[in-house]
Design brief:
The relative contact order is 0.15. The protein is of the alpha/beta class and 285 residues long. It has a single domain, classed as Rossmann fold, CATH 3.40.50.
Length: 285
C-alpha cells in the first residue's frame, strides 16, 4: 500500500489550505460578469477599439519634450483614466516640471501622481505669462460655460509655440446628446450605474467647445493654430445593460468609417500658440 503524500502548505493561501484542497472562490459580482461579457463582445465586433483616453495619452506623449514645463488644468486626483497608472507616471517622469490645478480641494489632496498642486479657477491662472510649454485638460472643457476666458489664459501662459492638448466629448455623439438632454438630477445615479463613478466626480456640462468646427473657430479667435484634431471612438457606454450593448458596438463599428467620423464619441485636440501673434502685431500698429 502506498503512503499518502505529506501535506504541503500553499504560500499565500487561506489558513489551513493544502495542496489538493480547493479554496472556495468568491462569487463574481454582477458588474464584473457584465464587464466580462462586454469585453468578449467588443473583441468580436470591434477588435481594434480602445478607450479614447489612449488617444489623449498619445497626444500628450507627442507634445512632451525633455525638460518640458507642463500644467494640467482641472487635474482632479489623476491625469489619465483610473486604470492608466503606469502611462500617467511615465509622462510625469519624462517632463521637466509638472503641476496640476483644480478648484476641487479634496481631489487635489488625493492626486496620485503630482506633488505640485495649485488650488484655483481656470479663468485666473496664477502664473507668469509664457511660463509653460504644455497645458492640458482631460475631460474638462465640456464643463466650461464660456471657454473664451480659459483659452485667453492658456494662450497667455504658453511660451511661443507652446501646446494646449485637451480631450473632450464630441457634441454630435449620441451619448453626449443624451447627456445634454438628461436632467441634472438624473445624471449622477445614471453615471454611477453605467460607469461606477461616484457622484462627487460628476459635474455640470455645457458643451461650448465640443464640435470640430467650434474648436477651429475659437482656436483662430484666440491666437492658436490647430496642430491636430482627431475624432475618435471610445468604449461603449452601455456595458451594464448586458446583450443590449451589442447594438452599441455595432454602431461604433459603423463609425469607424471615415465618412462618419463626425459622429464619433470624442475629440482629442492639440493647439499650438502662434510664435508671432497677428493680434498683437495689429495692436502695435
Amino acid at each position: 500500500m502506498s503512503q499518502a503524500a505529506p501535506e504541503t502548505k500553499v504560500p499565500g493561501s487561506a489558513r489551513g489550505a493544502t495542496v489538493g484542497t480547493k479554496v472556495p472562490k468568491r462569487p463574481r459580482s454582477l458588474r464584473s460578469l457584465l464587464y466580462g461579457f462586454y469585453f468578449k463582445a467588443e473583441r468580436r465586433i470591434v477588435p481594434q477599439l480602445r478607450s479614447s483616453q489612449y488617444a489623449y495619452y498619445d497626444a500628450l506623449r507627442a507634445a512632451i519634450a525633455p525638460g518640458c514645463r507642463w500644467l494640467d488644468l482641472g487635474c482632479g486626483h489623476q491625469v489619465l483614466a483610473e486604470w492608466m497608472v503606469a502611462e500617467e507616471q511615465s509622462l510625469v517622469r519624462e517632463s521637466g516640471f509638472v503641476a496640476g490645478m483644480d478648484l476641487d480641494w479634496q481631489a487635489l489632496l488625493k492626486h496620485r501622481s503630482l506633488d505640485k498642486r495649485v488650488f484655483g479657477t481656470l479663468t485666473a491662472l496664477p502664473f507668469e505669462s509664457g511660463s509653460w510649454d504644455l497645458v492640458s485638460a482631460n475631460m474638462v472643457m465640456e464643463h466650461l460655460q464660456d471657454p473664451a476666458p480659459v483659452l485667453r489664459e492658456v494662450h497667455r501662459l504658453l511660451a511661443p509655440n507652446g501646446m494646449f492638448v485637451f480631450h473632450t466629448p464630441n457634441y454630435y455623439h449620441w451619448v453626449t446628446l443624451a447627456a445634454w438632454w438628461t436632467p441634472e438630477v438624473l445624471k449622477k445615479p445614471l453615471v454611477k450605474f453605467l460607469e461606477g463613478r461616484s457622484g462627487s466626480d460628476v459635474f455640470q456640462t455645457h458643451y461650448q467647445i465640443n464640435t470640430a468646427a467650434t474648436v477651429r473657430r475659437l482656436a483662430a479667435e484666440h491666437g492658436f493654430e490647430v496642430e491636430e484634431l482627431r475624432l475618435v471612438n471610445t468604449s461603449a457606454a452601455l456595458k451594464m445593460l448586458g446583450p443590449a450593448v451589442i447594438g452599441e458596438l455595432l454602431y461604433i463599428r459603423l463609425l469607424e468609417r471615415s465618412q462618419l467620423a463626425q459622429l464619433r464619441s470624442n475629440l482629442v485636440v492639440t493647439l499650438r500658440k502662434r510664435a508671432t501673434d497677428s493680434r498683437a502685431r495689429s495692436a502695435q500698429l
